[in-house]
């Protein structure tokens, strides 16, 4: 998204306008903005998204697999590459390719594919060449007589063109040999794991990250963000 800033004290001072909203300019500006945006903008209540932290996630996945994830940290968004960017009729389309790493404490019980697990330990997931196709829909929102350009809705589809690597300790309590065997199986069959369990977990992380995008627009009056 490219915007013209009329008050740099309320908004950021590093986004430049794109005449006619041409895709090449949008792509360039978004690419230059990402490393700064992910650091966070305290004046706009935008938190850091690299690292992106989340204290606790509790989810039940297909097959009855229950996962608790605590003290989670995601890194890598600052290095995402912008493949494509378009804006038309209040709709934005952005495609990114990212390499991300997620670390935290996990507790899991249930079945992954054909294997039953009962683990409690440290988790690390490394995802390479994660392709994200993002759609944003904007609307005018009047609050207290001031018009804001809010994100009404968003949709993200993803595909992993690289691979997923799992590093999980204590997959089977008291049985490290079996845990290592299962870990090897998961890494060798990561595509099957992703197909069955990936979307719900990715959706959680994306939901946390997009709160910052929504805050960015909802805290700046539209007359201070003149979309060209």
From TrEMBL:
Gene Ontology process terms (BP): circadian rhythm
Signal peptide: none
Domain of life: Eukaryota
One Pfam family hit: JHBP
GO cellular component: extracellular space
Keyword hit for Signal: yes
Keywords from the UniProt entry: Biological rhythms, Signal
InterPro entries: Haemolymph_juvenile_hormone-bd (IPR010562), To_sf (IPR038606)
Keyword Signal attributed: yes
Family listed: Belongs to the TO family.
Protein name from the UniProt record: Circadian clock-controlled protein
